[in-house]
Design goal:
This protein is of the alpha+beta class. It has helices at about 1-5, 20-30, 35-40, 60-65, 75-90, 100-110; strands at about 15, 55, 130, 140-145, 150-155, 160-165, 170-175, 180-190, 200, 205-210, 220-225, 230. Strands 3, 4, 5, 6, 7, 8, 9, 10, 11 and 12 form a 10-stranded antiparallel β-sheet that branches. A two-stranded antiparallel sheet has the order 1-2. A hairpin with a 7-residue loop joins β6 and β7. It is globular and about 45 Å long.
Length: about 240
């Protein structure tokens, strides 16, 4: 577990390493991928490249800093900066304005995922040996015991947005996007059976259980809602 904490991204800037995706960096930074994309002006499907510099927060806000010297410009410029950010946020998180709702509906028609994830399934059969914890150094998901080679299954329909071993402490990892709000992750796999951008169905075998970057054979399973860790037990069937 401590390895995973060491692996989290902090600071205001980050240099992309080989094998990383915007989703895997957002995962490590505990932020919503859309927020990261907006800050860095990256459009979907969020292609990035090694050695690219990313800003992890919009505190750097170039325009406001450059105008700060002139007091007469400051209030009006701040308003100009704030407005588009606020609008973007409303659109990202579903907004309340009627016009935005219609655009969201149109977006959903084009999108194969609805905002609510239906039919969550257990990603593996086995005993839960570590539960979710909200403590600062706590477990961000659940750990399910098993034997090497046991099937690891997609918890719900989605698309693979990361498959690899660039996240130290997670071993061979798969991240699945279910819709704009929900992601799930499957760590410590022995083998990964899917590729990035592959569409997967609930219950589909996506990996084989292992102990990569772990002390024992197990599946570490996480669910994120808008970039934040949530308790998977709230979603999985009893």
């Amino acid at each position: 577990m401590s390895q995973r904490i060491k692996n989290s991204v902090t600071g205001s800037e980050y240099i992309v390493k080989k094998g990383e995706t915007l989703y895997s960096i957002a995962w490590r930074a505990d932020v919503d991928v859309r927020t990261l994309a907006t800050i860095n002006n990256i459009k979907a499907p969020y292609n990035i490249y090694p050695q690219q510099k990313l800003f992890l927060s919009n505190n750097y806000s170039k325009p406001s800093q450059s105008k700060r010297k002139s007091k007469s410009f400051n209030p009006s410029k701040q308003k100009v900066i704030k407005k588009p950010i606020a609008q973007k946020k409303k659109q990202e998180y579903g907004g309340n304005v009627a016009g935005q709702k219609t655009s969201k509906k149109a977006q959903q028609q084009n999108n194969t995922f609805s905002q609510k994830v239906r039919g969550w399934r257990w990603p593996a059969t086995g005993k839960v040996i570590h539960k979710f914890s909200t403590a600062k150094q706590g477990n961000k998901g659940i750990d399910i015991a098993g034997r090497r080679g046991d099937s690891v299954k997609a918890t719900a329909d989605g698309k693979v947005v990361y498959a690899g071993d660039a996240l130290q402490g997670y071993g061979k990892l798969v991240i699945v996007k279910h819709n704009d709000d929900y992601l799930s992750a499957y760590a410590h796999n022995d083998r990964i059976l899917v590729k990035e951008q592959q569409v997967v169905k609930a219950g589909q075998v996506i990996a084989k259980m292992g102990d990569t970057d772990a002390e024992r054979v197990m599946l570490h399973f996480e669910v994120r809602f808008r970039g934040k860790s949530v308790n998977p037990m709230k979603y999985l069937p009893k």
